[in-house]
Amino acid sequence: MTAPGEDRPPDDHNGNGNGRGTVGLTGPGPLCVFGAIGLVAGWGLRALAIRMGRAEPEVTWLSIGIVFFIAAVIGGAAYHTWRTRRDGIRLEPHRAVNRLVLGKTCALVGAGIAGGYFGFALAHLGVTDSSGANAQLWHSVVAGCGGILVMVASLLLEQACRVRDHEK
């Protein structure tokens, strides 16, 4: 029992209060929710722009390249973290937590990006008024695949930060 005003160690998931909090890997539920939110937002973006009398947004090769660049950077961090852990080098705790938070956050953002671009591609299905719509459809699909790569690289980074039972 602790006196009022004293710091108490956080409980673990079993309520033992042993001060060893755990953070689990990002599950499919939050990823699906963020992907669905992105899908609806991307799908509605074209209609909203047309309804407001504005030009519909374009998916450029620059934006596609940025998504793939982000995936490559996160993938590189995942590989470096995995290699460091494999070689038996102890990762400093604050660096491990930073990478874990980066992995968790970017996995959710990657799911949202993928959903948004795939939703934008869905909005262009059946649009036959211009050849630009067909190009936007395929640009959106490629960018959505980049979003999936961001999500996968982030999940690999999370996995690389995982502490095994024999390492505790």
Brief write-up:
With 168 residues, this protein is mainly alpha-helical. It contains 4 helices and no strands. The protein has one domain (28-55, 62-167).
Layout of helices and strands:
Elements lengths: L27 H24 L9 H26 L6 H31 L7 H30 L8
Helix pairs in contact: 1-3, 2-4, 3-4
Structure description:
With 168 residues, the protein is an all-alpha fold. The chain has one domain. The chain is built from 4 helices and no strands. It has helices spanning 28-51, 61-86, 93-123, 131-160. The two termini are 26 Å apart. The model is unreliable at 11-17 (pLDDT under 50).
How many domain modules? 1
- Mean pLDDT across residues: 85
Give the SSE order as H and E letters.
Answer: HHHH
Q: Would you tell me the structural class of the helices and strands?
A: mainly alpha
- Which runs of at least 5 residues are low in confidence (pLDDT < 50)? 11-17
Strand content: under 5%
Please count the helical segments: 4
- Oligomeric category: single chain
How far apart are the termini? 26 Å
Estimate the helix proportion, in percent.
55-70%
Shape: elongated
Radius of gyration of CA atoms, rounded to a whole number: 21 Å
How many beta strands in the DSSP annotation? 0
- Describe the largest sheet: none
